[in-house]
Amino acid sequence: MIRIYKAKDYNDLSRKAANIISAQIIMKPNCVLGLATGSSPVGTYRQLVEWYKKGDLDFSEVHTVNLDEYKGLSGDNTESYRYFMNTNLFEHVNINIANTNVPNGQAVDPEAECRRYNELIRSLGGIDLQLLGIGHNGHIGFNEPEEAFEKETHLVALTQSTIEANARLFDDPKDVPHYAFTMGIKSIMQARKILIIASGADKAQIMHDAFFGPVTPKIPASILQIHNDLTIVADEAALSQTDLKGMKNSDY
Question: Taking the model in full, what pTM does it have?
Answer without folding.
Answer: 0.93
